[in-house]
Amino acid sequence: MKRWTQVVLGVSLVLFVVGQAIAQEAPDAKPKPVLTGERAIMAKECNCTEKQQAKLAEKDQAKKEALNAWDTQNGAKLDELRAKLVTAEDKAAVGAELTTLEADRTRIEANAEADILAVLTPEQQVVWQGYKLSQQMKMRYSLMNAEQATKCRTLCNNAAKEIAALQGTAQENQKAKAAIIENLNKAVQELVKSTAVKKPPTVHSKTPTPTSRTPATERKAPAKTNPTR
In this predicted structure, what is the pLDDT of residue 193? Predict the structure, then answer.
């Protein structure tokens, strides 16, 4: 009995030491980042690593906080200018002030989006650009079938690669990008037309008009004539 007790204690001691060693070697467990909406789609489409997903969650939260701070500080002024624009005599002046204020918010949002995109590799950025273009085309041509959608995505991916390869000035790139998207739109439009399922022409069967006849039961029997004697 004493020997058995020693064996049990020995095994327990070994398990305790092994457990302590594993606990020391294992890094602190951190909860996986929770991505929702567009960020979740981005992570899936671009096959982001866990490290990238954590960065995306961080940058997305920073964007929300920046926009919320701006709205808190300027929201009332923004609503005031929008209401004032309706009845103002000098609409040009009020409109200019409103445009400046809205542009400031747009700038903050664009900078935050740039920080988010910077988390992706150049290759992933092309993939994401292709996805965004495909969504735009699907909204424009909502009746695309599955085959058309697959071909459309390929066209959008190619357009995204062309956009990524632009190396001109900001103004030149903007103009070139617009031309690429215009060509993409034409290609998708042609795709939808060329692969559209044509319905066979409707054949109208000619049913002969029945002639009206008096039923046999209603026909009058011929009058009987008396034979001449």
Answer: 87
Q: Give the count of alpha carbons within 13 A of 6, CB side only.
A: 3
Of 114, 128, 120, 121, whose CA–CA distance to 66 is shortest? 114
Domain chopping of the chain, boundaries: 32-120, 121-194
The tokens for 111 are 């900078």
Highest mean pLDDT among 13-22, 122-131, 211-220: 122-131
How many Å is the Cα radius of gyration of the chain?
38
Phi, psi at 165, each rounded to 5°: -85, -5
For the chain, what is the mean pLDDT? 82
Residue 84 · residue 94 · CB < 8 Å:
yes
Long-range pairs, 141-147, Cβ under 8 A, ≥24 = 141/188, 141/189, 141/192, 143/192, 144/192, 145/195, 147/195
Q: How many CB atoms lie within 10 A of CB 13?
A: 10
Contacts of 74 (CB under 8 A, 6+ apart): 101, 104, 105
pLDDT at residue 14 above 70? no
